[in-house]
Design goal:
GatZ_KbaZ_carbometab, mainly alpha, membrane, transport, transmembrane
Length: 267
């Protein structure tokens, strides 16, 4: 698929915002569901963008910065894989390959992050010198420069991909042997499952396990649409919050610290 100049500019802007949001974490442009959906929207492939973003979001849910350990770069993975998917022109059949490509791209994003943060070290010393002189305006300017460097970290690779002829990308994807593309699809699916399992491992406890079980059982009913499943999830969340409030307001001596247990003990 050949993109217009206007679409290319919009994609680069989205990539720039995604790079900044990887640091700011305010408007969530770096999240796969947001970045891929926006790229799909501006390129006329909204459905593909939403589908790819949904799969990648399941992977990114298990990514988190813990201490000195930096999580894989969701921004670069989302933007680059969305661009490759759209330029490849394979439609829904290319989603599996795009998901598999996103994983090494996320690791490559860590290398780019390291470079940018290393380049930002002199900015910190310049800000210290400005602070000693009471120059607040210079501090603010240098802070904006540092954030823009993070945006360029994603915008520059995105621009490079956009200027690769679409036919070249398509030929490269089609030249991949079946065993490789199929293996990448399976591997990408496993990464999604591992990401979701990591989220469950962090969230699961004896209070919410019943809701997880109900959700997985109900999801197996093929007649229910995603809207119905979402409505059921909201209903279960409201039930849980109401039970939590009732358990938290209990002043009895049998308070165990578990809201659901306290309610059951009251009976």
């Amino acid at each position: 698929m050949t993109l217009s100049i206007f679409a290319i500019v919009l994609v680069i802007i989205i990539a720039f915002l995604a790079g900044m949001e990887g640091i700011l974490d305010q408007f969530q442009f770096h999240q796969p569901l947001v970045a891929c959906s926006l790229i799909g929207l501006v390129t006329g492939n909204l459905e593909l963008g939403v589908m790819l973003g949904g799969f990648l979001q399941m992977m990114a849910m298990g990514w988190a910065n813990i201490g000195a350990a930096v999580a894989p770069d969701a921004a670069l993975a989302s933007v680059a894989s969305a661009i490759i998917l759209i330029l490849g022109g394979q439609g829904k059949e290319g989603i599996g390959t795009a998901i598999a490509i996103a994983t090494p791209l996320a690791a490559a994003g860590l290398f780019l992050t390291m470079i940018v943060r290393t380049l930002a070290v002199p900015l910190v010393h310049m800000m210290d010198a400005a602070a000693a002189k009471g120059n607040i305006r210079k501090i603010e300017f240098l802070q904006v420069v540092g954030i823009c460097m993070q945006g360029l970290r994603i915008a520059i690779p995105a621009a490079a991909l956009l200027f690769i002829p679409a036919q070249t990308v398509r030929d490269a994807l089609e030249s991949m042997p079946t065993w490789l593309t199929r293996g990448m699809e399976i591997g990408g699916g496993m990464v999604v499952a591992v990401g979701y399992a990591m989220v469950i491992n962090m969230m699961a406890n004896k209070e919410v396990w019943p809701f997880f079980i109900i959700g997985f059982v109900v999801a197996a009913i093929s007649q229910l649409t995603l809207i119905a499943l979402g409505a059921l999830g909201i209903a279960l969340a409201i039930i849980y919050l109401n039970l939590t409030e009732r358990g938290g307001s209990s002043n009895g001596s049998n308070n165990t610290g578990d809201p659901l247990d306290d309610i059951l003990n009251d009976y």
